[in-house]
Write a structure and sequence with these properties.
Blueprint (H helix, E strand, L loop, with lengths): L11 H22 L1 H9 L21 H6 L12 E6 L9 E5 H17 L7 E4 L8 H13 L2 E4 L5 H11 L3 E4 L1 H13 L11 E4 L13 H9 L3 E8 L4 E4 L7 E2 L5 E6 L12 E7 L10 E10 L11 E8 L4 E3 L2 E3 L1 H8 L5 E10 L5 E9 L4 H15 L4 E4 L2 H8 L10 E4 L2
Length: about 425
Amino acid sequence: MIPIPKIETQNPKEIKAFQEELLKKQLVYLQDKSVYYSNLFREKNIDIHQIRTLEDLVKIPVTTKDDLQKYNDQFLCVESSQIADYVTTSGTSGDPVWIALADEDLDRLAYNEELSYQCAGLSESSIIQLTTTLDRRFMAGLAYFLGARKAGIGIIRVGSGVPELQWDTIRRIQPDTLICVPSFLLKMIEFAEANGIDYQNSSVKKAICIGEPLRNQDFSPNILSSKIQSKWPIELYSTYASTEMGTAFTECEAGKGGHQHPELIICEFLDENDQPTQNGEPGELVITTLGVKGMPLLRYKTGDIIQPHYENCSCGRATLRLGPLVGRKQQMIKYKGTSLYPPSLLDLLNDFEEVKHYVIEVFSSEIDEDEIQVLVHSSDESDEMLDKIKDRFRAKVRVSPRIIFVSEAEILKIKFPENSRKAVTFLDKRL
């Protein structure tokens, strides 16, 4: 395992100067190789040689998901013969788009995840059990696999679901780390308890978690994390990543946010007017990829509202850290005068042992106002349970949406649509 890169322990001025040199090289590459960005520079009369600092980035228009969907092919910077792998986004916030990776991008992906494993305290003696898929054009599983190979870490490709197979693999091979969606850990615990498996004394000591938040904004464990660790006190590491950025922000043992790797990505935080937020306030994360050959992105709006943290970390890194996701910009709900984001609603529902599955639906009323409906499959469908859920919503977010109990078959059909790579817990049906 490589040591912490020197740049990650240097002071903010040195990190900034380092990124500015990489940015200049990336701009030249985009002008030479990207149809989309060379057209943009020409149409907007942008002289890339005048972009010398990170602050100068505001002179360049942002790139949106709509741009990437509409002009997908124009972002490609290499010949088709140089493409080593194709992946697609999950389509969480719209139709999926495809991303092409050159050989160098696969190497970059492996390096990124080697750094992620380093953050999580893994070593060459570690063994990882991978519960995310490598198929269905999914980048995450591929990245974790490549990173393990580069780091010299053993890896078991079990794939998603099937708790029985997961526990049989743990018994036989004795991995110390799982890579999984955190709510899946609850299913593994449930299976273990039902089948007499002594999971608390298993070989598993850590889990690198993807897809769901583990912490509140103050970094305290959220309900899901607390629920897991009250039964199985393993170390949980939160991550933030997306296919478009080809980069992951992974927590270290301090658990105070996902660390940026400055050689791989530039981060900006913008307000609703696409201007930088002030005084470290949360904003929409906008990223510029560094060192990407296939489909690099410049000032790409992720749609995610995130709180940045700039203080040095106790682990020795001085890089930017990303706090837990506040919410997706386009998923903000205005309900009865209250602004809400789905994560706050999902966390509430995780607090109920009786609630086995849920899906939150948002739609427009006849007068074009946001309405919320929560579909719940629960082991208790009494009026008392319904009131209990409503009271919790009122106590935590001041409003209570419509709650509907549904059968397990009905909710699983909605939650796990055919060909989906992720469980669907939020459906935006607004016009």
